[in-house]
Amino acid sequence: MTTRRVGAALVLLAAAAAFAAPALAPHALDQRFVALLNAPPTVPRLVDDRGAWHLPFIHPWRLVNQLEQTYEQDRSTRVRLVWFANRRLVSSSDEARAPLLLLGSDSLGRDVFSRLVYGARTSLGLAAVASLGAILLGGTLGATAGYAGGIVDDLLMRASDFVLVLPAMYVALGLRSALPLVLDAWTVFAFLAAIFAVIGTPYVARGVRAIVRTEARLDYASAAAALGAGHARVLVRHLLPAARGFLVVEATTLVPAFIVAEATLSYVGLGFPDGVSSWGTMLHEASSIRAFTDFPWLLSPAAAMFVVVLGLNLAFQHRPPLSQA
What we know:
57% of the residues lie in helices and 9% in strands. The protein has twelve helices and six strands. It has helices at residues 3-19, 21-24, 112-148, 150-165, 168-177, 185-216, 219-226, 231-239, 244-267, 279-285, 289-293, 300-315; strands spanning 45-47, 53-58, 61-65, 70-73, 79-85, 88-92. A hairpin with a 2-residue loop joins strand 5 and strand 6.
């Protein structure tokens, strides 16, 4: 299997998990298990301590030290797993005593795995919407500048250069901090998508402008104009298609950048509110030394971000020239 296929499989896996979050998540986002704060992951098993085989089951956790929040498995008790119940793929048959915590629980007793797959919807959705906005806005401005030339080109490119030289993350932090801290989730989503789209626009605009200016000098563009095609038709039907490959590459660059940007803003408390699950808010809630030493499962959003970014880079890596292949 090539690296491209591995990357595509990783991206599709993340997208599928986000899409199927209601079925994959064993618990609701706000469901808490107050007796299992920072509990380790529960591992499904098929074989008990005596070597006997069973249908998939788990052992419940028993609190050993409340101050240090350490647990041990009650290996004398088997709790079977049930499948396709309550519109969920799998869950525990005894939620009160032994909930299924595939990635453990957080400091409030919430299921980390459920929050992770629901958080993928927020983080990946925001990154995708912001990237689409940057592609549309940057593509429009770049195509207009490259085709019109003259003062229009100068004005658009100078505005693009002004945004380009600004430190993107500090701009995002500054714009977000200028807004009220307490906002509902959809308002935060819209504001962050708009901020990220504006920041990403210059990168797209400059590349599209260069491609359109180059293509406009070729014979096929001149022939289309000589046959009576209007400016809009020449631009949309003949020149912009030449930038499709560049736009795909830019999208694969912007999506990981926006995933990290959302995580950064949420980590410093300027992203989504606490009630909303995103990879950034989960990392913000796990920002303690003990998360690294005693509760590493709380850092699973960082691992998920790494997998998605790696998958995008592998899936859309540049092909080598034929002379080097």
